[in-house]
Structures are given as structure tokens and as C-alpha cells.
Amino acid sequence: MDGPTLSPISAHARLWRPADKDVRWTGGFWAEKQNLIRSESIHSVLDAMEDPANAAYFGNFRAVAESGGTFHGRYWSDGDCYKALESILLLTDVSPDEALTRFMNDRIDIIAAAQEPDGYLNTQITLTELGRWTDIEHHEMYNLGHLFTTACLHHQVTADPRLLNIARRAADNLYDTFHPRDPDLARFGFNPSQIMGLVELFRETGEARYLELARIFVDNRGTHPERPGNNGDQSQARVPLLDETEAVGHAVTGPYLWAGAADIVMETDEAPLMAAITRIWEDSTYRKMYITGGIGALHKGTAERSHPRYEPIAEAYGRPYQLPSDTAYNETCANIANAMWSWRMLQLTGDARYGDVIERVMYNTGLSGVSLSGTHFTYSNPLRFNGETHFIGNNDSPRRWTRWTCYCCPPQVTRTIAGLHRWAYSTAENAVWVHLYGTNRLDTDLGTGRITLRQDSDFPWSGEVCMSVEAAPEADCTLHLRIPGWSDTTRLRVNGDPVEVTGCGPRYLALTRSWAPGDVIELTLDIRPRILAARPEVEELRNQVAVMAGPVVYCLEGADLPEGVTINDVALPADARFTPVAAQGVFDGLTLLRTELPRRAPWTTQALYAPARATDQSAVSATLIPYFAWNNRNDNTMAVWLPRKG
């Protein structure tokens, strides 16, 4: 499966992405997760997608190809099927698998047969009496966008043009429909993955019309908010994107839109558009993001600036600093979209704060969407779960599942982890940027020669990272090492000699020299557990604290408390001490944190309020687990934030 050796380089990105084959996880945390996706998760996903009772169903393509049948699932089923094929591509590119490749090739043949003569391709329309482009909630754009993205990757990995040709015909049909800029069609773009997909098609084919169309979809946002069928802030359509100042609306459609806009900036260098998505990212990150990297706090929100109508918004960003724990929505797709958007901002700027968000998402709420077994999934990701008394809202579930009424999240998880090696490094002229730490290998051409780096680390359970140079250009080359904002003290040695690490906060440390085979870089990051508080504006978290070690957020499950003690009965001292322990059993391979938690004074009356009392002085032994590992046991009561003592 030999394809092109280089990924397309965007003219106005500061950083470039190496070819997919140039980076591999060779061991450690992410290699284990990638192997789990290959051995378990992808088969769970594909099995579910052959079940007509599941929300995403490959059989819809087959029904169209055979000229008959009933549509099954949700309107966005096609897009989720494409995401599953993208997962297969990424997995088989790393490690060839004949069975998965046969499955993919068979589905491509069926997809080709399902495409209509004019290039239109949406089974939820073709198999029903629904009309084309009549309702934004039909998700036609979402489905096509994931087709475009998957088709480009398929061509890069296999050099086979079949799926790319399908995508181009669909994109040409989309261009013919939307290029005239009919105001009645300007409202379309809910869940707008088509913008990212069209830019990727432009990069892969050089066809300028695809970039032009992507820009049209960005321009359309907010231009006709008064038109019937435009759902306002729900799909970021009340205010033109260039004028937007805040992250509003549905927490998947927003990051998909803003990530697509970032892709456009990489190709066009539009300063006003860059300024807009930077403003929105800062609002999302500094006022509306959870400690886990999750976004989309509310099952049901309100468009407050739509006064006096106050339109309802589903799966929504809340107000600034509105971050409830037990009713937190944090859809898995939204959380990963947050990382996708931040990845693009990182390529545009080289600013380490974007790398920190990618890391925060992937070690926490991006990973919590899949069980430790790899076979079960979750849609929402709360930061507190109350067991049998917990309120179960839309798409909440007390247990992880294999089939679901909205199945977009499982293939989102599988494709992201399967392709996470693509986010580990970037390159630039005579430079390598190291974004993610772990055991991996980079072997890429910098133009002045090849550079080969081997990285060895037990990250995130250890802060020790060793990078060995196996090959390097003769000319000077700069290695930019990301220093995470959470690392309070960082040490660095090159060939045994200490190098001063200055500054604070997220940043890249530049090492420029003529590198030679045998050079060794030793980086020590500070992963000591830290007790964190939220800003005082976050009303739900006043006088509460949480624990992070390195990039990993920890939580307390009821299963790790003595009998008769619940998550409501304990507090966390501001000076608590933690003992890292290597886990066994269900958490084998993870590092847990043991500590002593004081018991709170019992509530002895049915009154809702009573005089404040001091916390009991007695303490109980408890073990904190990584947040991403919660809900893998019977007692899944859980809390990330605990009352602060002292």
C-alpha cells in the first residue's frame, strides 16, 4: 500500500505535517491504545454498523445500490460510516490487515454503486421521501465532509483513486448547488465537516474550486439569520464568523466550523479570519472548557443573545464559566473536535498553548469515550456521577454500550487514536517540532536531509523522556521541544550537559545545532500530582479542588472507598500527599494515586440547610484513578472535584 511520500504543505502554515508513514508509535501508552483500537475497538464498531438497530448502518449504502430498502439509523449515519473507514485506513497503514482491507474495499464498491448519476450521495435522502437541501438537520453536509476527508486519506495511503473519484463527483455536485450563493441555501452547514473536507480535497487534487466552495460556506455563516430554517446560534449562524466574539451553540458544529476556517487560513493567509477564530478559541478555552478538555457543558442551553425569543440550543456551550459537573454533557465528538481545532491552530502559529489543549483532551475526555476493554463506548462525559440517583439526560448512560441511538462518537474515537501519531510531530524549514511525548520514531525528510529521532518514555506515568538522534542533516537543525504549562520544573540535558530551561507556561524550547547520530536529549517533565482550583467565577466549583499529575486528570470512584463511605462523605485537603502505585487487574498498566481523605461531618437532619460544621478529623484510605478509566467497574459513582479541606 505505497502512496505518496509527502503530505500536502499548506502555504501559510508555520508548521508542516510529516507524511503519515514518517511517524510511528513504537511502544508505551499510545502504541498500546492504538493496538487496542486495532484488536478490539474497530471490530466492535464494524459489528455495530452491520446492525440495522444501530444509529450508524453500512446497510443503507447496500440498500441504495440494490435499488430498494428502508433507511435505518440517524440522518448522519453515512458520515459515521466514512469515519469507520478512515479508522481502517489509519490502522492498516500502520500495520497491514487483509481482512480489514477487504472490508474497506467491499464498502467502497457499495458506496460507488450508491452514488446518484449527478454525483449526489446521501442515503438518508435517496432512501426516503426527504428532499435534497430542505432541512439543515438532515446532515447532508456532515456526511459529505467525512466522505471528502476519508477519500483524501485513502488516496494518500493506497494511491487508489476510486474513493477520491467518488468524493470529487460529490464535491462537484456540491459546488454546482452552492456556488450561485442562493440565499435560501445559505443556512446549510449544520455540523459542517464539509469545510475541512473541501480544503483537504483542494490540497489533494489542486482543484481551486474546492477551496473556493469552502470559503463560500464560511462566508454564508450568519449572513441571513432571518431566513426560515436558519437555527441561529445553534449552528453559529446568527453572527457572521468574521464578527464573532464568543464560542456559542452546538459544541460539535462550532469547532468543526472553526477548524475548517483554520484550514482556509492555512491556504489563504486571511488575517481577519485568523483573528476571529483566535478570539473564539480563547473564549472556548479560557471560559468554557472543563479541566478534562471537554466542551459543551449543557444538554440543553439557551441562546441568550436571541432576546426576547431565547432560542433553545442542544448540546451547547454554556455561559462563561458555567461548568456543572454531574450534568456536564461534554460529548465525545465535541471534545475530540476541540483537539482537531487546536491542532490546526498549532500548525498556523507554533504556539504551545494549542499543543497543551490537544494533550489535555487526548489524555482525558478524548480517551474516556472508550472503555479499557476497547469494546464499549460513551457519548457524554460528566465530571461527577451519582450512581442510581443520577439524572440521565439525552445521550447519557449509566453504563458504557456497544449500540446506541446516536453512534457518532465510537468512530470518532477510533479514527483519532488510530491516527494520533500524525499529531506527535511537525516540521518546518530545517526544524522539527515535538508536540507529544511517548515511545515513537520519526523518520522524515527536511529538504536538507533526513532526520531520524527515536523517542523512549513511559509518559504520562513518568516525566522522563529520552530522544536519540539516529540520522540528521549535515546543516544546523532546530528541535523545538514542547514544555507543557503544567510542568513547574523542567530539566534538560543534551549529551549529558545541562541546558537551561527558562520561562513559564506552555512554550517550545528551541535547540539549534548540527546534530549527529548518537546525540541524546534527556527531558525531565514535572509530573508530580498537583491540587488545582477553578477560577472564582466558576460558581459550581467554588471551594472544590481536583488532582492532575502531568496531563492526566484523576477522579475518585466509589469502588475505591471503604464500605459505607461514599463520594459525598469525603473531602480533599489542600496539602494532601499522594503515593503513585502501579495498578493491577482492570487498571493494569496505569498509575493510580493513593491518599488519605478526611471524612466530612455527617448530615444528620432532613433540613436542606444547617449550620456549617468542621470536617471530621478521621480519615479514610482512598485511591484515585485516571479520569479516562472511570466507569469500568460496577460501582461507578465518581467525582473529579471534591470539597476542599483547609
TrEMBL record:
Residues 22-420 form the Non-reducing end beta-L-arabinofuranosidase-like GH127 catalytic domain. Residues 432-526 form the Non-reducing end beta-L-arabinofuranosidase-like GH127 middle domain. Residues 529-643 form the Non-reducing end beta-L-arabinofuranosidase-like GH127 C-terminal domain. InterPro entries: 6-hairpin_glycosidase_sf, Beta-AFase-like, Beta-AFase-like_GH127_C, Beta-AFase-like_GH127_cat, Beta-AFase-like_GH127_middle. Pfam families: Beta-AFase-like_GH127_cat, Glyco_hydro127C, Glyco_hydro127M. This is Beta-L-arabinofuranosidase domain-containing protein. It comes from Meridianimarinicoccus marinus.
